[in-house]
Amino acid sequence: MTGVAGATVAVAATAATTAAGTTTTAAATAATTAAGTTTTTAATAAAAATAATNATNATNLHFGGVVFPGSNCEQDVVYALRFLGHEVSYVWHQDTDLAAYDAVVLPGGFSYGDYLRCGAVARFSPVMDAVSAYAHAGRPVIGICNGFQILTEAHLLPGALLRNFGLKFICESVPLRVEQSVCKWLDLAQGTVLRVPINHNEGNYFCDEATHERLEKNGQIVVRYCNPDGTRDAGGSAPNGAFDDIAGICNERGNVFGLMPHPERVCDGLAGPHATDGVPFFKVIASYVEEVRGA
Amino acid sequence: MKKYRIFVTGKQGIFDPAGKTAQNALDNLGYEGIKDLKIGKFIQMNCDDAVSVEAVTEMCEKLLANPIIEDFRIEEVGA
């Protein structure tokens, strides 16, 4: 218990260091106070410190995290987004009103047991009509892992996710290369390498040649699997066999983004040197939301 | 009562690692002459007489198969 509290406080202190000068004192105080109390309080202090950090940048958003029967990563998403200073509400798959949310997340998991095909049944959940309308209105939607599979089944993103080439469920941290794209969710220099965990059995992206050409031409390929140095092997660098090493794509407009890796799991800085590599995936969408609001 | 059998298979050109693995296993067991082996899904549906082949086709296009990656074939049993 004490050990865990200590670790969390260390994060709060780190956040305090990276925070703007004005917030440092408050965050550090929160961390100190938390050290003497329980783990829960320490975690709250860490979140508070991060919230203080984020207060200096963009608007904090209200996310809707859709929960299907069999989703199991919605808590990771909620934890990460709250850690980054956003508000998040769970949206049950029977709900049909998304108007209150600035952005919608379809989390990972095994909706409807992955029966038939991953996402095939979830795609007909009542909430998906609302997600579709929301997406077509240009509002931001992100689908992570099973969420990506659902978006392809719902034809909000092209292509499909096949069983991993090696027939094995893969759970590991992999390097991802950021590509030049129109995606509203990610704005990093092309070639930036991030390390993000994957955790799936059906992540082998497939699309036909014509679709692939369109994806290339429109800048819809957002992230690709790569070697740790950002290069790609001629025979493919995707651990799951994904076509053209594609790990994540967006729609033509860039507001709908789907990816197999889990950026929400590397946001709080707790797990090693790459433990904040997921943060950029939830950072720039705020300015797009402002743009949409202003329009 | 009507009975339909639906076969869902990977489209031409879509690599089927499960099929390939089974084929390799048969090769290893000494069975010769197997050119290609594909693994797909078999769906059996019992339904009212009123359910037409057209309706089942629509079910396949909409839910039971994904036309991006799969082909399907419908057989009416005893028709």
Features:
heterodimer; A: 295 residues; alpha/beta; Rossmann fold; nine-stranded mixed beta sheet; two-stranded antiparallel sheet; globular; B: 79 residues; alpha+beta; Mth169, Chain: A; three-stranded antiparallel beta sheet
Polypeptide structure, described:
- Chain A is an alpha/beta fold.
- Chain A folds into two domains: 2-55, no CATH class; 62-294, Class I glutamine amidotransferase (GATase) domain (Rossmann fold).
- Chain A has eight helices and eleven strands.
- In chain A, 54% of the residues are buried.
- Residues 1-45 of chain A have low confidence and may be disordered.
- By secondary structure, chain B is of the alpha+beta class.
- A three-stranded antiparallel beta sheet of chain B has the order 2-1-3, covered by helices on one side.
- At the A-B interface, loops of A face helix 1 of B.
In short:
By secondary structure, chain A is α/β, with parallel strands linked by helices.
The name of the CATH architecture of chain B is 2-Layer Sandwich
CATH topology of the largest domain in chain A: Rossmann fold
* Major sheet description of chain B: 3 strands, antiparallel
What is the percentage of strand-forming residues of chain A? 15-25%
Reconstruct the topology from this structure.
The complex is a heterodimer of chains A (295) and B (79).
Chain A lengths: L1 H17 L2 H15 L3 H17 L6 E6 L6 H10 L3 E6 L10 E4 L19 H11 L4 E4 L1 H8 L6 E3 L7 E9 L14 E8 L3 E3 L2 H10 L2 E5 L20 E5 L5 E4 L25 H10 L1
Parallel strand pairs in A: 1-2, 1-3, 3-4, 4-11
Antiparallel strand pairs in A: 5-8, 6-7, 6-9, 9-10, 10-11
Chain B lengths: L1 E9 L6 H12 L12 E7 L5 H12 L5 E7 L3
Antiparallel strand pairs in B: 1-2, 1-3
